[in-house]
Write a structure and sequence with these properties.
Layout: H1 4-15, H2 20-32, H3 34-56, H4 59-65, H5 67-91, H6 105-117, H7 120-129, H8 140-167, H9 170-175, H10 177-200
Helix pairs in contact: 1-8, 2-3, 2-6, 2-8, 2-10, 3-6, 3-7, 3-8, 5-6, 5-10
Amino acid sequence: MPDLIVFVVTAAALAFTPGQNTALMVSRTMSSGPMAGAVVLAGVEFGFFVHLIATAFGLTALLLAIPAAYGILRTIGAAYLLYIAFRIVRTGLVDLPGITPRTSKRQLLRMGFLSNALNPKTAAFYLAIFPQFIDPHHDVLTQTFILGAVQITVSTCCNLVYIAMAGRLYGLLRKHRTVERVQRWLFASLIAGFAVRLAWEPRVHSAAP
């Protein structure tokens, strides 16, 4: 498989590019701690795995070839991001001492998974980038899964850096409710902005997930 190092660098650059998944992980980390951010990250990476399966077996190419299907997925994804933004503003999703956590690990996992799995830009990224690093003279399916495993591993490592950095602010936000409220509204607005962009921007062939 040629240029694997170049692929790793490309995957890292895209993972470090802030997007809706990054905003969601950082927001949950700053509100509920690094463990919450890590659970969201696990959901995000599972979403990547679903996109990988779809790409390997041709479902992604079919999705992008049918404008109506792409539009439906984009609309559902945007609606779900708006729902997340609403929940952040409405409940804060903050786990305070003496208060029952409002968001279970299962909910956080689902949140990360759906945010990524319902993003057609992730599907476009896989379909646009992977063929550039696949040798057509060898087993294409095996190479696709290898590239997917590498991309998911790189994404996990890069996003753990974001979670570790956001985790340093977790204690501060628990002590200062005003700062926590500002953070909550900031990230809710950011995620809502990603939803609007996803819903209204022209159909893309590749983009940073």
